[in-house]
Design goal:
293 residues, alpha+beta, 9-stranded mixed beta sheet, 4-stranded antiparallel beta sheet, 30% strand, elongated
Length: 293
């Protein structure tokens, strides 16, 4: 009778362990399915030469970080970390990235490859999870410097320009907003960027111009730089946020140059020698006639 009770307890314990195991697996599957729709990492902007990082949810089951560098167009995706461990950086990237359980750190933001870095760090980053359907991604846009403003009085305009690198297929682009002294918006536009290097498809320049003749009472202009949301054609796992970034430049005392009118001076020409002789002759004749009378 005692053996029968012990057998029943063992069988009951085995069923309980199996049930717990099934619940754990179910929870992990549920978490992973939820992960593939979450925006674990966010689009962001960094200055060239400075570090940047992508924070992620700590409780996930990631296995690999990947990047599609902005300076590659054909077969751009590269594996940053080992195929089986997201915390081991591949040899070609040891001077470019650092990885731990909470973040991927870009040691130096670049718009193009450098001696110790095989590719630009601007690009599209993805984090793959244990479930092949679980992926999250976001873009890193790298700007060379703050926007530059200039005043062109001769052509009656102010201009604002910025050089940056981004993954072209993601299409996160600059928005330039002109404001007056009081912060009133004069114009907000998303200029069409132009390529700066045929060998670097992601390196671009955006320029916005504003005619100063359209606001003759304004002397000081400010150009505010922000960035747009990505193209709506991106996969669902790519983050849809507009980068949280603002920078600006200003021009002062930029007014339309009005041409100055020149005064016309009237000059008297000196009489010629023959004219003086003729005048003297007439005067002499007049004096002679008066004496005879």
């Amino acid at each position: 009778m005692m053996k029968t009770k012990q057998s029943r307890i063992l069988i009951h314990g085995a069923k309980t362990e199996h049930l717990i195991f099934a619940v754990v697996i179910s929870c992990l599957n549920y978490y992973c399915v939820a992960q593939k729709c979450s925006k674990d990492i966010r689009n962001q902007v960094a200055y060239e030469g400075r570090p940047a990082s992508f924070l992620r949810i700590e409780n996930g089951l990631p296995i690999m970080w990947k990047v599609a560098p902005s300076d590659l167009l054909i077969d751009p995706e590269r594996s940053i970390t080992d195929d089986d461990d997201d915390k081991i950086v591949n040899p070609e990237f040891v001077k470019t990235y650092k990885v731990d359980s909470k973040r991927l750190t870009i040691l130096k933001s670049t718009v193009a490859r450098q001696r110790s870095m095989p590719y630009a760090t601007a690009g599209l980053y993805t984090l793959n999870y244990l479930d092949p359907n679980c992926t999250t991604g976001a873009g890193l846009i790298v700007i060379r410097d703050d926007p530059e403003c200039t005043c062109d009085r001769r052509n009656a305009r102010v201009s604002c320009s910025v050089d940056y690198a981004a993954y072209k297929e993601q299409r996160i682009e600059p928005i330039m907003t002109w404001k007056d002294d009081n912060g009133v918006t004069l114009r907000s536009k998303q200029p069409t960027p132009s390529s700066l290097d045929v060998n670097n498809p992601g390196l671009q320049r955006s320029v916005s111009e504003f005619p100063i003749a359209a606001a003759t009472d304004v002397r000081n202009y400010t150009c505010q730089l922000t960035f747009s949301t990505p193209s709506p054609r991106q996969p669902k796992y790519i983050s849809r946020n507009a980068p949280s970034f603002t920078a600006s430049c200003s021009v002062k005392n930029c007014r339309l140059r009005i041409p100055q009118t020149t005064k016309t001076s009237v000059t008297r020409s000196r009489p010629t020698t023959s004219a003086r002789r003729l005048r003297t002759t007439k005067t002499t004749r007049k004096a002679t006639t008066t004496c005879k009378t």
